Amino acid sequence: MGQRGITVATDKQTAANRLNAQKSTGPKTPEGRAAVRLNGVKHGLTAETIVLKGESQADFTNMLESFEAEHDPSTPTEEALVVQLALANWRLRRLYHQEAGFYTCQLQSLTGMQKDLNLDDAGRMGHAAAWSESTLTLFNRQEGRLERTFYRALHELQRLRKERESNLASVCQTSPDVETTAVSAEPPTAPSVSAGAEPPEMPSEQHPSPLPASNRPIL
Q: Each residue of 7-34: pLDDT tens digit?
Protein backbone atom coordinates (compact mmCIF):
# COMPACT_ATOMS: atom_id res chain seq x y z
CA MET A 1 0.00 0.00 0.00
CA GLY A 2 2.78 2.40 0.95
CA GLN A 3 4.75 1.54 -2.16
CA ARG A 4 1.68 2.15 -4.30
CA GLY A 5 1.15 5.55 -2.70
CA ILE A 6 4.72 6.52 -3.53
CA THR A 7 4.23 5.43 -7.14
CA VAL A 8 1.02 7.45 -7.49
CA ALA A 9 2.69 10.56 -6.08
CA THR A 10 5.60 10.13 -8.48
CA ASP A 11 3.26 9.83 -11.45
CA LYS A 12 1.44 12.99 -10.43
CA GLN A 13 4.70 14.84 -10.06
CA THR A 14 5.88 13.61 -13.45
CA ALA A 15 2.65 14.80 -15.06
CA ALA A 16 3.01 18.17 -13.36
CA ASN A 17 6.60 18.49 -14.56
CA ARG A 18 5.57 17.73 -18.12
CA LEU A 19 2.83 20.33 -17.94
CA ASN A 20 5.22 22.95 -16.61
CA ALA A 21 7.77 22.11 -19.27
CA GLN A 22 5.24 22.96 -21.97
CA LYS A 23 4.89 26.48 -20.62
CA SER A 24 7.38 28.87 -22.16
CA THR A 25 9.23 31.01 -19.67
CA GLY A 26 11.36 32.84 -22.20
CA PRO A 27 10.59 36.03 -24.09
CA LYS A 28 7.84 35.75 -26.68
CA THR A 29 8.02 39.08 -28.51
CA PRO A 30 10.76 39.94 -31.05
CA GLU A 31 11.86 42.79 -28.79
CA GLY A 32 12.19 40.45 -25.83
CA ARG A 33 14.15 37.86 -27.78
CA ALA A 34 16.45 40.56 -29.14
CA ALA A 35 17.13 41.82 -25.62
CA VAL A 36 18.39 38.44 -24.39
CA ARG A 37 19.86 36.84 -27.52
CA LEU A 38 23.50 37.58 -26.53
CA ASN A 39 23.08 37.10 -22.79
CA GLY A 40 25.06 33.87 -22.99
CA VAL A 41 28.09 35.85 -24.10
CA LYS A 42 27.52 38.79 -21.76
CA HIS A 43 26.84 36.92 -18.54
CA GLY A 44 27.43 33.19 -19.09
CA LEU A 45 30.43 30.91 -19.05
CA THR A 46 31.74 32.48 -22.25
CA ALA A 47 32.03 35.86 -20.58
CA GLU A 48 33.93 34.30 -17.67
CA THR A 49 36.53 32.90 -20.06
CA ILE A 50 36.77 36.11 -22.09
CA VAL A 51 36.99 38.70 -19.33
CA LEU A 52 40.10 37.85 -17.34
CA LYS A 53 41.00 38.91 -13.84
CA GLY A 54 41.76 42.60 -13.75
CA GLU A 55 39.54 43.33 -16.76
CA SER A 56 36.13 44.98 -16.60
CA GLN A 57 33.02 42.92 -17.30
CA ALA A 58 31.04 46.14 -17.73
CA ASP A 59 33.45 47.37 -20.41
CA PHE A 60 33.11 44.14 -22.36
CA THR A 61 29.31 44.20 -22.07
CA ASN A 62 29.13 47.82 -23.23
CA MET A 63 31.38 47.09 -26.20
CA LEU A 64 29.32 44.06 -27.23
CA GLU A 65 26.08 46.02 -26.93
CA SER A 66 27.51 48.85 -29.03
CA PHE A 67 28.39 46.43 -31.85
CA GLU A 68 24.95 44.83 -31.53
CA ALA A 69 23.23 48.22 -31.76
CA GLU A 70 25.33 49.22 -34.77
CA HIS A 71 24.80 46.09 -36.86
CA ASP A 72 21.37 44.97 -35.54
CA PRO A 73 21.82 41.22 -36.28
CA SER A 74 18.64 39.48 -37.41
CA THR A 75 19.88 35.90 -37.90
CA PRO A 76 22.00 33.49 -35.82
CA THR A 77 24.81 33.86 -38.35
CA GLU A 78 24.82 37.63 -37.99
CA GLU A 79 24.75 37.29 -34.19
CA ALA A 80 27.83 35.03 -34.35
CA LEU A 81 29.63 37.56 -36.54
CA VAL A 82 28.82 40.37 -34.08
CA VAL A 83 30.30 38.24 -31.29
CA GLN A 84 33.44 37.72 -33.41
CA LEU A 85 33.75 41.47 -33.83
CA ALA A 86 33.50 42.02 -30.10
CA LEU A 87 35.93 39.22 -29.22
CA ALA A 88 38.54 40.34 -31.73
CA ASN A 89 38.32 43.94 -30.58
CA TRP A 90 38.45 42.94 -26.90
CA ARG A 91 41.54 40.80 -27.44
CA LEU A 92 43.19 43.60 -29.40
CA ARG A 93 42.68 45.89 -26.42
CA ARG A 94 44.22 43.25 -24.17
CA LEU A 95 47.17 42.91 -26.52
CA TYR A 96 47.80 46.65 -26.40
CA HIS A 97 47.80 46.52 -22.58
CA GLN A 98 50.18 43.57 -22.66
CA GLU A 99 52.55 45.39 -24.97
CA ALA A 100 52.47 48.48 -22.75
CA GLY A 101 53.12 46.34 -19.66
CA PHE A 102 55.97 44.58 -21.39
CA TYR A 103 57.64 47.89 -22.25
CA THR A 104 57.17 49.04 -18.65
CA CYS A 105 59.00 45.97 -17.35
CA GLN A 106 61.79 46.34 -19.88
CA LEU A 107 62.27 50.02 -19.09
CA GLN A 108 62.46 49.27 -15.39
CA SER A 109 65.26 46.81 -16.08
CA LEU A 110 67.16 49.57 -17.88
CA THR A 111 66.95 52.01 -14.99
CA GLY A 112 70.46 51.16 -13.75
CA MET A 113 71.92 51.44 -17.26
CA GLN A 114 70.39 54.84 -17.95
CA LYS A 115 73.12 56.71 -16.12
CA ASP A 116 75.91 54.79 -17.81
CA LEU A 117 74.47 55.10 -21.32
CA ASN A 118 73.01 58.57 -20.77
CA LEU A 119 69.76 57.61 -22.54
CA ASP A 120 66.63 59.70 -22.74
CA ASP A 121 63.13 58.20 -22.86
CA ALA A 122 63.22 57.57 -26.61
CA GLY A 123 66.64 55.97 -26.34
CA ARG A 124 65.52 53.66 -23.56
CA MET A 125 62.46 52.63 -25.62
CA GLY A 126 64.67 51.77 -28.57
CA HIS A 127 67.06 49.86 -26.35
CA ALA A 128 64.17 47.88 -24.85
CA ALA A 129 62.82 47.05 -28.31
CA ALA A 130 66.23 45.89 -29.49
CA TRP A 131 66.50 43.52 -26.55
CA SER A 132 62.99 42.13 -27.07
CA GLU A 133 62.73 41.64 -30.82
CA SER A 134 61.24 38.15 -30.61
CA THR A 135 58.55 39.20 -28.11
CA LEU A 136 57.58 42.26 -30.13
CA THR A 137 57.42 40.12 -33.27
CA LEU A 138 54.96 37.85 -31.46
CA PHE A 139 52.87 40.88 -30.47
CA ASN A 140 52.79 42.09 -34.06
CA ARG A 141 51.80 38.67 -35.34
CA GLN A 142 48.92 38.40 -32.88
CA GLU A 143 47.79 41.92 -33.70
CA GLY A 144 47.66 41.15 -37.42
CA ARG A 145 45.71 37.93 -36.85
CA LEU A 146 43.12 39.64 -34.65
CA GLU A 147 42.74 42.53 -37.10
CA ARG A 148 42.11 40.08 -39.94
CA THR A 149 39.49 38.30 -37.82
CA PHE A 150 37.79 41.60 -37.06
CA TYR A 151 37.63 42.86 -40.63
CA ARG A 152 36.67 39.47 -42.05
CA ALA A 153 33.66 39.37 -39.73
CA LEU A 154 32.86 43.00 -40.53
CA HIS A 155 32.97 42.45 -44.29
CA GLU A 156 30.81 39.32 -44.00
CA LEU A 157 28.24 41.25 -41.97
CA GLN A 158 28.17 43.99 -44.58
CA ARG A 159 27.83 41.42 -47.37
CA LEU A 160 24.89 39.71 -45.67
CA ARG A 161 23.18 43.02 -45.01
CA LYS A 162 23.61 44.09 -48.65
CA GLU A 163 22.35 40.71 -49.88
CA ARG A 164 19.27 40.91 -47.67
CA GLU A 165 18.47 44.44 -48.84
CA SER A 166 18.94 43.39 -52.47
CA ASN A 167 16.60 40.41 -52.06
CA LEU A 168 14.00 42.61 -50.41
CA ALA A 169 14.18 45.14 -53.23
CA SER A 170 13.88 42.35 -55.80
CA VAL A 171 10.76 40.98 -54.14
CA CYS A 172 9.18 44.43 -54.09
CA GLN A 173 9.92 44.97 -57.79
CA THR A 174 8.60 41.59 -58.99
CA SER A 175 5.32 41.72 -57.08
CA PRO A 176 2.42 42.23 -59.57
CA ASP A 177 0.46 45.44 -59.40
CA VAL A 178 -3.21 44.86 -58.80
CA GLU A 179 -5.25 47.07 -61.08
CA THR A 180 -8.81 47.79 -60.00
CA THR A 181 -11.52 49.05 -62.33
CA ALA A 182 -14.41 51.17 -61.14
CA VAL A 183 -17.71 49.34 -61.35
CA SER A 184 -20.90 51.32 -61.22
CA ALA A 185 -23.19 50.36 -58.38
CA GLU A 186 -26.30 51.59 -60.20
CA PRO A 187 -28.42 48.95 -61.99
CA PRO A 188 -28.57 49.12 -65.79
CA THR A 189 -31.39 51.26 -67.16
CA ALA A 190 -33.80 50.29 -69.93
CA PRO A 191 -33.32 51.92 -73.34
CA SER A 192 -35.07 55.25 -73.55
CA VAL A 193 -38.03 55.86 -75.90
CA SER A 194 -38.12 58.92 -78.11
CA ALA A 195 -40.54 61.64 -77.09
CA GLY A 196 -42.45 61.64 -80.41
CA ALA A 197 -42.88 57.90 -80.73
CA GLU A 198 -45.73 56.09 -79.05
CA PRO A 199 -45.63 52.49 -78.02
CA PRO A 200 -47.78 50.16 -80.12
CA GLU A 201 -51.29 49.56 -78.82
CA MET A 202 -51.81 46.05 -77.59
CA PRO A 203 -55.07 44.32 -78.61
CA SER A 204 -57.62 43.49 -75.95
CA GLU A 205 -60.87 41.49 -75.79
CA GLN A 206 -63.04 44.64 -76.04
CA HIS A 207 -61.03 46.14 -78.89
CA PRO A 208 -59.76 43.33 -81.04
CA SER A 209 -57.34 44.24 -83.75
CA PRO A 210 -58.94 44.52 -87.20
CA LEU A 211 -58.35 41.76 -89.65
CA PRO A 212 -56.50 42.54 -92.84
CA ALA A 213 -58.67 43.07 -95.96
CA SER A 214 -57.68 39.80 -97.52
CA ASN A 215 -58.99 37.87 -94.55
CA ARG A 216 -62.40 39.66 -94.20
CA PRO A 217 -65.54 37.49 -94.92
CA ILE A 218 -67.46 38.23 -98.14
CA LEU A 219 -71.13 39.27 -97.47
A: 445 666 666 655 554 444 444 454 545 4
Whether the model pTM is above 0.90: no
Q: DSSP characters for 43-70? A: HSHHHHHHS-TTS-HHHHHHHHHHHHHH
Give the whole-angstrom CA distance, residue 5 versus residue 142: 65
Radius of gyration from C-alpha coordinates of the chain: 45
User: Rounded to 5 degrees, what angle do the CA atoms 85, 87, 88 make?
Assistant: 65
Neighbours of 57 (CB within 10 A): 13
| CA nearest to 107, candidates 88, 83, 123 | 123
Q: CB–CB of 98/142 below 8 Å?
A: no
**DSSP letters spanning 80-124:** HHHHHHHHHHHHHHHHHHHHHHHHHHHHHHTHHHHHHHT--HHHH
CA–CA distance, 51 with 59 (Å, rounded to integer): 9
Quick check: 154 and 86 in contact, CB under 8 A?
no
DSSP states of 156-193: HHHHHHHHHHHHHHHHHHHSPP--------SPPPPPP-
